[in-house]
Request: fold
Amino acid sequence: MKFIITLLAFATAWFSAAPATAQVKTAPMQKMGKAGMVEEYNVLVGSKDVRQGAYVRYFGSGLGGVRVLESGNYENGLKEGEWQVFSEQPPWNKLVSKGTYRAGQADGWWTYYQLIAPRTAKPAVTIGKDTVQKTGYSVNITDDTAVPQAQGQCALGKRIGIWTYYDRQGQEVQKVNHFTNQLLYWRKNDTLAISSAAAATHPVLYAGGREQLKAEIYHRLGPEAWSAFISKKNVSVFVFAVAADGQLTGPLLADNPSPNRYEKVLLSAMSNVPAQWLPAAVNGENQAGEYRVRITTQREVMRTAQGFSEGVRTTVEPLGE
Reply:
């Protein structure tokens, strides 16, 4: 997949070319953040709080070159039109989602991509880098790892209608009617596919399946979690309670009302997992239920290019279907 993000300089030209009755005067802005992160966008003249036109957020330096995090467009301070989000951790410049906004809310066709790329995929790389100026920033990205994970329609910021979910090999694993939170198709494993009436009875499921839930959790664990780990081994079980209407309570720590420091960090990380849950169902009637996940973290001696050293290994085990 190849695409070019050319921002701000073109946005200014577009506004100046618009009819006189539709002209909007804007001024370019560049905002520097932590660790070299940069935001570039336009604002309405006379109102620096109202963004208007093209937007990009990126890391512009480092050994890895340009690392784009997010790109899109604003209309009167609200997200509008197509937006693309890229991974905020290695591999860089990896497409995570692409879809459209209307008046600041997800509205239209959306595609989410696998957080963990297939082993056969090539890493996303940055092809070139132009000058970094307040008048514009241009970067060319090739992403060979963009494998769809979910596709469907959004309205008013929520998933609606029938969504299709895929595994890392591109095979369908679920079809879900998000109007009713009902499962239409479910590939339970490599040999068993369940559809029609048989899919009307099932336990609590994560939209996209066990592997997607595991990927979402791994994606949100990082240096902050590992730096909080001070013991030799920690095993914790977490509970996601899903009501009949799909509303989520949790995650909560199972059988332990007093989480330790490390478990508090894990709870914080998992609270950022997208709440895309399907309630349990019996003969098509949704019911309340729960889903459990076990996370094991332990110190191990690992082989590296420089020899052996102690490291931290975390294993995420979804305990449901």
User: Anything to note?
Assistant: The CA atoms of residues 20 and 27 lie 18 Å apart.
